[in-house]
## 1
Amino acid sequence: MFRVINSAAGLELRLTADFENRNVRYAYSALDEQSAGVPEGGILSMRQSGDGVVEFYSADEQLTPQETCNILLEPVQFPGRSCA
């Protein structure tokens, strides 16, 4: 499990990779009662391409590495701009 914490925003992101089932679960939680709101988490599936690169998918839509970072980190980095 990996954790990303933004104390100023009052949010924590928890990532849990399940390599056997080829998915990553992510969830957000408030660090204190002062947090404005907590975005919903989700699941990304992992698939290995023919050249051995692991690709991430959300609802069967392939994500670029930048899109994957945005989905996971934007709510923690920029909580006011988050659409989640």
Note: The beta strands are 2-6, 11-18, 23-30, 42-48, 54-58, 61-63.
## 2
Amino acid sequence: MREAILFFLIVVAGTGGELCVSRAMKTAGEVTDFRPASLLRFLLRALRVGWMWAGVGLMAIAFFSLLGMLAMEAVTFVVPVTALSYAAGALGAAWFLRERVSSQRWVGVFIVCVGVTLVLLSKR
């Protein structure tokens, strides 16, 4: 049961964090000037966006869940199973960020899910 909770946290919190940071960066705008003073202003602007902090917090939860999972399972099992975050990312991008996900990408997500299923079945 602990493993399932940690996998859930890795996939959901990690993907949620990436989606939140993506939304924050879209709010902060594009970097067009790479001089140090401009980069600092951009960083300060990005840090004022609430989505950035939500994303960082979720990514921290995912990171520590990954550490816990690696303490219990082999990396050859953990890393492939966490690839479910690619499927969660595509779903989140389509729903939360309103991005268009092409049919070719959905096929790729399906292939990843088949691979994860094979890894999960090999554990038994």
Note: Residues 2-123 form one domain.
## 3
Amino acid sequence: MSKPFDVEIDNSIAHIRFNRPEKRNSMNEDFWNLFPKEVEELDDSGEIRALIVSSTGPHFSSGIDLNMFNNDVVEDESENEPGRKAGYFRSIRLE
């Protein structure tokens, strides 16, 4: 799995740069799983005084990558029940 961002540390300043410009730096499942861990590790290390978050390409981020909802997470029965499907997505939490 390749990270959807790059991390550099220079002179006690960490720089996280989103690196999916072809997808307008949308935040996919890898992002949601890795980004919080990366920030926590940087914080726990005690090596940095500041954190810069930026991106590559013309867009900072288009937000959540909706393609992560195209898998078989939602059961077929909800296909004709958009309210249940929407309720499911509001209730999930990524670990």
Note: The radius of gyration is 17 Å.
## 4
Amino acid sequence: MPQSEAHKYELLIYWSAEDQLFLVEVPDLPGCMADGETPAQAAANAEEVISVWIDTAREDGLPIPVPRRHQVVV
């Protein structure tokens, strides 16, 4: 999957005191999560995880959810 497709999904990034890492959830892709030491690293890791999630769904013949949200926070 081209990386640009991964950019279409909303990323929820938050700090986890328990893990001492930034965590990322991708609400449109069940179970799709990543982490990183910085928000940017966590987002970059999420892009890779999204690609793997979608590739795996395609291989298994499962539907790939259409991105529902397009929220940008600056």
Note: Strands lie at 12-16, 21-25, 33-36.
